Amino acid sequence: MFSNRTVNILIPIISVLLGLIFGAVIMLAFGYNPIKGYGALWSGAFGDLYFFGETLRQVTPYILSGLAVAFALRSGLLNIGVEGQVFVGWLASVWVGVTFDFPMIIHLPLAVLAGACAGAFWGFIPGILKAKLGVHEVIVTIMMNYIALYSSNSLVRNVITDGEDQTEHIKASASLASDWLAGMTYFSRLHYGILIALFMAAVMWFVLNKTTTGFELRSVGFNQNASKYAGMSVSRNIVLAMVISGAFAGLAGTMEGLGTFGYMSVKSGFTNIGFDGIAVALLGANSAVGVVLAALLFGTLKIGALNMPTEAGVPTELVEIVIALIIFFVASSYVIRWAILRFKKEGK
Amino acid sequence: MSFFEILQSIIPQALFFASPLIFTALGGVFSERSGVINIGLEGLMIMGAFVGVVFNLAFYDTFGAATPWISIIAAMVVSAIFALVHAVASITFRADQVVSGVAINFLALGIGLFLTKQWYDKGQTDMVERPFYTTNIPGLSKIPVIGDLFFSNMYITSYVAIALACLVWFILFKTPFGLRLRSVGEHPMAADTNGINVYSMRYVAVMLSGALGGLGGSVYALTIALNFSHATIVGQGFMSLAAVIFGKWHPLGALGAALFFGFAQSLSIVGPSLPLLSEVPSIFLLIAPYVLTILALAGFIGRAEAPKALGEPYVKGNR
């Protein structure tokens, strides 16, 4: 009745449902009407074309940060440093965007490339430390997050600007903003980045599934010893996986820098794009298609939640709790799998 | 500024910033020694800070001067219960311990901010009415030189933290309980064969880490932050985790590492007024603890051996 494949698809669906049910229970416990609450969430995400555009805009960086985490995970690495890589990608792309003056055909690709390279570099450091010295990538990437946060703040304040809290707006020739997409969605901030994000998802699928490099990366993720025995360089693949993962994350920051905001400001804390990327990747089962769908779900939840206080009185933070619970359930998939199999046995 | 004056401005500050890290890192030592990775320390601190602040605001009329002490106990209890979520997921449900820890961090912040909105109708709480105050230790503060450096204008919680580190060392290395806890983290199957209940030991260890993380968070809230918002705990939990690893999973090592981080943090605040460091851009002082952790991990201060079974769920009967 349930093949392994169906179980793998069922787990994320059940996790999302459980998360939403718990959210409803919390709403009930605090005297809110969950139907009204989720109704407000729905109309806040899809209510009209403007909200829909904003939802898609939010989905854009989530796809990329989700791909970053998923790509590393497929090679057996947990990249918690996506947050920091987003920061440096954002900063580098905006820096290129405000500093240079080129025609768009050079300027925009250059700015995007700068963001990707900065992220890749930020992923290279934990990668090389893991490959050469065996340092656990989780702790290094966490530390790199803080280094990225404080250094980019300092660079914005002291190098790019003269003591300001925010850089200038990027030149129009480096902007991803699109009159066409914005006009279509009642002037939301939707930009061309969504196309880049979808394209990158296709790239990840292609690289992992259709190329030799991708095969090696996955192989190292499955079993390092076997890969080594088969003549693959484990350390080269670890570094490569972290660099590509970092590049995806850097692009996520680039989307915010060149698309949504058009500037970089001094930040008091993390943007959470990177941390949410972990949730997106886990829910999307580390596959390109799964990541796009999971990003769509989390983008919907985040943007829709903004409508909840006004329409249903529910604090937006409820959605953070729901997302945290979804991660828990996905992480505890062993129990869900057990329950499904149990159910299957009794069904016979 | 004389050398003595410099010391006088740095040492109390360093101890002040270190004490929440010490508490939380000791919690991390318990959890990781039993074989459960705890990236959720940050979330446990957030929970502790939230409970500490809310309890303080709600009950300062009732308990008067004892309020901060009762607040931190309340925070310990609630965070210990909250840590159960991580315990159930990573021990019983065999979840990936890192992922479960990440979820703990999300959950704590979500719950904390949700309830803050719910109860105070805004994004942050009011300032607490009864925080911890600095005191001079009677008698000891009169000792020349040392008295001024170590016993004047200090928070009692700093001494509690240092004393607790010694206590945790004693528990882990000199008691049967500590031996069992460590054996569960090194070789759970061997421990199981010897009649130690691996699951309950790990549950106890994770709940202890919850209690101590909550203690660290509430002490941070009641000495440094003084209110609760999304920006109250930003990274102190991760820094405590780094202190655990920096300190080679040893309570006194973690104490040393936390003191070092406290020192580094105090430098970034006191630094600009010091003659030598005022020339150094503040950014280098800010990122110093993180860069040093990476360098330490890369082996510049000697390799550290993690507990062998760290991160592996124990499945009874598996070989």
UniProtKB/TrEMBL annotation, chain A:
Origin species = Halobacillus salinarum
Membrane-crossing residue ranges in chain numbering: 7-35, 55-73, 80-98, 104-125, 190-208, 238-266, 278-301, 321-340
Q: Which InterPro entries match?
A: ABC_transp_permease
Predominant cellular place of this UniProt entry's protein? membrane
Keyword Lyase listed? The answer is: no
Q: How does it sit in the membrane?
A: Multi-pass membrane protein
Name of the protein described by the UniProt record:
ABC transporter permease
Alphabetized, the UniProt keywords read: Cell membrane, Membrane, Transmembrane, Transmembrane helix
- Upper taxonomic lineage: Bacteria, Bacillati, Bacillota, Bacilli, Bacillales
UniProt entry tagged with the keyword Methyltransferase:
no
Q: Where in the cell is it found?
A: Cell membrane
Its domain of life? Bacteria
TrEMBL record, chain B:
* Entry-linked InterPro entries: ABC_transp_permease
Compartments it resides in: Cell membrane
Predominantly, its location class is membrane
Kindly give the membrane topology term recorded for this protein. Answer: Multi-pass membrane protein
| Coiled coil ranges | none
Q: Which UniProt keywords apply?
A: Cell membrane, Membrane, Transmembrane, Transmembrane helix
- Span-the-membrane segments of this chain are 6-27, 39-60, 66-89, 101-120, 154-173, 203-222, 228-247, 254-274, 280-301
Organism superkingdom: Bacteria
Q: Tell me, what's a Pfam family for it?
A: BPD_transp_2
Q: What is this protein called?
A: ABC transporter permease
Q: Which species does this protein come from?
A: Halobacillus salinarum
Lineage, opening ranks: Bacteria, Bacillati, Bacillota, Bacilli, Bacillales
